[in-house]
Give the backbone structure.
Amino acid sequence: MLARTWSAAIQGIDALTIEIEINATGLGNETTVIVVGLPDAAVRESRQRVWSALATSGIAPPAGYTTINLAPADVKKNGAAFDLPIAVGIVAALNGFDRSALNGVMIAGELALDGSVRSVPGALAMALHAREQGMRAILVPADNAQEAGVTGGIAVYGVKHLLEAIRFFQDGDHGLQPTRVDLRRLQEQDRREDRRDFAEVKGQEVARRALEVAAAGGHNVLLIGPPGTGKSMLAQRLPTILPPLTLEEALEVTRIHSVAGVLGRVTSLVTTRPFRAPHHTVSDAGLLGGQSMPRPGEISLAHNGVLFLDELPEFRRNVLEVLRQPLESGEVTISRALGSFTFPARIMLVAAMNPCPCGHYGNAQRQCRCSSGQITTYRSRISGPLLDRIDLHIEVAPISRDELMGKPRGEASEPIRQRVARARAIQRQRYQGLPLRTNAEMGSRELDQFCILDRSATAILKTAIADLDLSARAYDRILRVARTLADLEGVEGIGMHHVGEAVQYRTLDRQLW
């Protein structure tokens, strides 16, 4: 008998409908199962999991020849999410229920040998795709039900055991209730608490101001200073001054984390901006995404949030260079034999480094023991093109003993966040109808339109370009930062003091390189 079920395969961060055909002929003396349709090893091994799950659930697996076809045949199928739809299809092929009940229902789930249903990555992407395809319902593992339920517009049923899925098609819903998720309530009540606060930072007024500017305009930042000056501490607190994720942004982030398999069982919606801090031994595939069927890398997992690279020169040169294209375009494109996959990667890059190998060059409190050649070699690990894509270069100097031993006196995160949110609101209004969100994303056309300088500001910028030998890209960065400084003040015109402060955030790289 022939039965059909529907599931989905993850392609990048999107899903593709997979039609699963089961033909249980009953012919032949020995049980033979053939899986076709470009299955990977995990899909081919589903035969053992499915047959054991059926047997332990009291259902006699089909004897003789059974052919399982996953269509379209030219798409690589990977993962164990096809276990549950295959098992349900086999029961339907054995006349366990009316096969028409399968119409309009997408199914995904991995089976344990005892028939229990295990979670799978990408449930949110599958649910979104099922809704787009006009499906009436989707069956997912119970651990994925809340995640898939944030989709809305489609009935999501979570099942814990194969028998629950079979009874769903035999007797209607058989007591299963659609998963209901209140997104607004999640945003307000299910947001993870971050106890970090800028009020804990001692001193570093210049760096604090620079990070506020960076947050307001979505700019990339490089923090340079000796060990122990608080570079990592500052970077870790940057998300606390960024505006809260909008519902659209939260769904984007959750979708990426779901496909990557890092969402976690207790999290149905990512409600805080991501902060990713990969170790300097990370590979380019780990940063961008890799494998034969690519999954999101660290830069995509930081989408709509912060990617922090500590000890920047310690990263391999080829790893740093692959950052250049994503920093410009806001997305990562990976080409494989199976096709090209694009992942969103709209991030704020925060990098930190020492000024020299020992870390004490320019430190009045400690003597540097590095030779000029060692310092030059150390700094040359970071290319000029990459530096030009970082808007603010900030010196983080050692704090005094009085500041170190005294209580923190800095401003807390919440009032800074409010100023940042007001500046971001100005930018949303300015770029309404344009594919831009922040000042950092402005291109040449937007710079000409929105960054008009008066005569005094133009004179300062010309002098800075000549004295500091700034590149054309650095010139654009200065204009973007000046625009952000004006937005923080709530003024439309870019004045001389805005340009002057923006230039100060570009001088350090010319002093060091």
Q: What stands out?
A: The first helix runs from residue 41 to 44. The mean pLDDT is 88. The longest strand covers residues 14-24.
